[in-house]
Write a structure and sequence with these properties.
The complex is a heterodimer of chains A (228) and B (298). Chain A is mostly beta strands and 228 residues long. Helix content of chain A is 10%, strand content 22%. Chain A has two domains: 112 residues; 84 residues, no CATH class. The mean pLDDT of chain A is 96. Chain B starts with a strand and ends with a strand. The mean pLDDT of chain B is 95. In chain B, the strands form three sheets. Chain B has a seven-stranded antiparallel beta sheet with strand order 7-2-8-1-14-13-15, covered by helices on one side. In chain B, strands 9-10-11-12-16 form a five-stranded antiparallel beta sheet. The longest helix of chain B is centred in the last third of the chain and has 14 residues. The chains are: A mainly beta (228), B alpha+beta (298).
Chain lengths: 228, 298
């Protein structure tokens, strides 16, 4: 198992080694130590591997991730898993602002809190935050699901498109064109499936409330629904 | 973009290491602000004395300065030089007299700060070099604040470097930009404030000094600044015994706090805190927007 000590090697060397991996690589378990808040750890990985990062990370950890499962045993700085395409990024501490920003796919799990602008402009990523999220989260969120066990800050889902937000706690305020929607059976099934992917089996689905677009702010047309 | 670091010690045993930790934190934040750097350090002091930190490039004046100023004040004057700054310690009640004499006889000398415990050193250049230039690693004290600057609102000059001090033992560093600083500056000028620069951050410092002069606590002054100041900011503020942090209501600029039984540490990024002793057991958290965090030494 490759073990990379970032006191001895640079982030650039780590990422270059990860980018060299071939699709059927046998080096499927990686460990990174002494992350010490360094930026851009494990960005742009495109291989079905697992990476354990022991410590806090700086900006953009797991950005643009494809296929990889990245576990961060600590807190993450700004833009963790930003623009993720697929795979899983799991933050075991708190995440700073813009977690999962513009993500196209994959799953981001935050065990602690996520700060402001969580899921801003998300485009298909699923985000599960077991704590609370900060202000202006899911701003202009286009597709995907944001699930929050705790509370949401001000202006949740401002100018939201077709992403869905589930919140169990209090929502401080909703942003423009974001409304609460009744949860249908299929919505509950979707929420249950999301929680299952995050390893949560004991949550009471009835405690969650669902939010989405009122579709008054942008030119929603039912013929385009398949695009979301 | 700018970088801020701050360290407020709770454990007295760490006081000899204050400068060492702050220097390392400052160097880590070079990438956020490579054009100039500065630090405010709260070290030893006495209530009946005041330390004037002066920028005086010409070391040849030191002996004359200490002797002549001592004769004018009829009091002992202590002078310590660190690169192009000198710290002159005089009796507190003679501060105005000393400053008037300096203005008249040494107009080339610039007052950086005044305080019973605070000294401020700042200069253009890479943060690591600035820290070494003033021998920051060897400095001791209870708390200190550092700043690495990437100028946006005014020129890259020594005067434009942070921290800004507009009151005794008070300093402020700022990451961000204020949009209404001209209006606030005009108001403060009417209150008798004199500003040295066109810098927005100096106005923020002046505003807090004015509020505290009017009787506000540090916490109250910062709370009212949320209404008075418009723009992006993360502020870290020092007073003789206090240390505070405030972010604007949309938390535009980054901030990380770490608190343990030994210290409170601030960094623009976690990297700045990663080498602190015991950081792995500190509570590391991101300060909330529009929320004043303040600590006082008992």
């Amino acid at each position: 198992m490759p073990v990379i000590d970032l006191e001895r090697q640079t982030v650039r060397e780590l990422n270059a080694a990860l980018h060299r991996l071939v699709p059927d690589t046998n080096e499927t378990l990686w460990e990174v130590s002494n992350s010490n808040g360094k930026h851009a750890i494990g960005t742009g990985v495109d291989a079905p591997i697992e990476i354990d990062i022991n410590g806090h990370v700086g900006y953009y950890c797991g950005g643009m991730n494809k296929q990889a499962s990245i576990r961060i045993h600590g807190n993450a700085g700004t833009g963790v898993a930003e623009n993720m395409m697929s795979g899983v990024v799991h933050v075991m501490g708190d995440a700073s602002q813009s977690a999962g920003a513009t993500g196209h796919g994959g799953l981001l799990i935050v065990d602690g809190d996520a700060a402001a602008r969580c899921g801003i402009s998300m485009k298909g990523i699923d985000i599960i935050v077991k704590g609370s999220i900060g202000a202006m989260s899911a701003f202009m969120a286009q597709a995907g699901n944001l699930v929050v066990f705790g509370d949401a800050g001000e202006a949740l889902g401002d100018s939201i498109y077709e992403a869905t937000i589930f919140v169990r706690g209090k929502v401080k305020s909703l942003g423009a064109d974001c409304i609460e929607k009744p949860m249908a059976k299929e919505d509950k099934a979707r929420l249950a499936a999301l929680l299952h992917r995050a390893g949560v089996e004991d949550a009471n689905l009835d405690e969650f409330r669902m939010y989405g677009s009122a579709r008054r702010l942008y030119n929603f047309h039912i013929d385009n629904i398949a695009s979301y | 973009m700018c970088g801020i670091v701050g360290l407020f010690l709770k454990n007295e045993q760490l006081q000899p290491e204050l400068g060492e930790h702050l220097s390392r934190m400052l160097a880590t934040m070079s990438a956020r602000g490579p054009d100039s750097a500065g630090i405010a350090i709260y070290g030893a002091g006495a209530d009946d004395l005041i330390k004037l930190t002066l920028r005086a490039a010409d070391a040849a004046v030191d002996r004359d300065l200490a002797r002549t100023l001592g004769a004018v004040l009829k009091a002992p004057v202590d002078l310590v030089r660190r690169s192009n700054h000198v710290v002159v310690t005089i009796p507190r009640e003679q501060q105005a007299q000393a400053l008037a004499w300096l203005r008249e006889h040494h107009p080339e000398i610039h007052l950086v700060s005044a305080g019973s415990r605070m000294e401020i050193y700042k200069e253009v250049g890479l943060p690591e070099r600035v820290a070494d230039q003033f021998s920051l690693p060897a400095m001791q004290g209870t708390h200190g604040i550092g700043h690495t600057r990437m100028a946006t609102e005014s020129a890259v000059t020594t005067n434009g470097a942070h921290p800004f001090s507009t009151g005794a033992d008070q300093c402020l560093v700022h990451n961000g930009s204020l949009s209404n600083h001209n209006a606030v500056r005009r108001g403060l000028k009417r209150e008798g404030f004199v500003f040295e620069t066109e810098n927005d951050s100096e106005v923020a410092a002046g505003y807090l000094t004015w509020r505290m002069r009017e009787g506000d606590s540090l916490k109250q002054a910062l709370t009212s600044s949320l209404v008075a100041l418009d723009g992006f900011f993360t502020f870290v503020v020092g007073t003789r015994d206090g240390f505070a942090v405030l972010r604007d209501p949309i938390a535009c600029k980054p901030a990380i706090l770490a608190e343990s039984d030994d210290y409170v540490a601030f960094g623009s990024e976690f990297r700045a805190l990663s080498a602190l002793p015991g950081i792995e057991n500190a509570r590391v958290f991101e300060p909330e927007p529009a929320t004043v965090y303040a600590w006082e030494r008992r």
